[in-house]
Design goal:
By secondary structure, the protein is α/β, with parallel strands linked by helices. It has a single domain, classed as YbaK protein (Alpha-Beta Complex), CATH 3.90.960.10. The strands form 2 sheets. The protein has a 5-stranded mixed sheet with strand order 4-2-3-5-8.
């Protein structure tokens, strides 16, 4: 998967750098290994009694307010997606989702929400489905990446 991600970034004209580090499993661990990086978390939500899935990319050291997302998108109550939904929609196990998971074919109907603050950062990091590496891209390149996929997304102040 990592090679596919890096090739996609190159083809899209996105400048990136890769940092190798000890395995990380949480945002707190990533901050410990990458103290200068802006913490990011990636969460797949699903309507409690529906089929809509929302992928939220946000500042990593803050709590997600699902009611805000529900209100902005006009969804019913949202909950964290179960592991089988995560695997089906993004092709990853829990704890492994990132912006790059949107390369997975199953993600086509997943709605994407990006925290507005990320787009303003010089660099934001996402792991390439490998918790021993972080790929850093410019915040503005989130838009470039989404465009390269032909995908729409919503920017919200989270």
């Amino acid at each position: 998967m990592k090679v596919k991600i890096l090739e996609h970034l190159e083809t899209a004209g996105i400048t990136f750098r890769v940092i190798n580090h000890e395995p990380v499993y949480t945002v707190a661990e990533s901050v410990a290994h990458l103290p200068d990086a802006y913490p990011v978390k990636n969460l797949l939500l699903k309507e409690e009694k529906g089929d809509r899935c929302i992928f939220v990319i946000m500042k990593g050291d803050e709590r997600l307010i699902t009611k805000l997302i529900s209100s902005e998108l006009g969804t019913k109550k949202l909950q964290f997606a179960k592991p089988e939904v995560l695997l089906s929609k993004l092709g990853v196990e829990p704890g492994s989702a990132s912006l790059f998971s949107l390369l997975h074919d199953g993600s086509a109907d997943v709605e994407v929400v990006v925290d507005a603050r990320l787009l303003q950062r010089d660099e934001v990091g996402f792991h390439p489905s490998d918790n021993t590496q972080t790929v850093l891209i410019g915040g503005h390149d989130i838009a470039t990446f989404m465009s390269s996929l032909g995908r729409q997304y919503r920017v919200l102040g989270l």
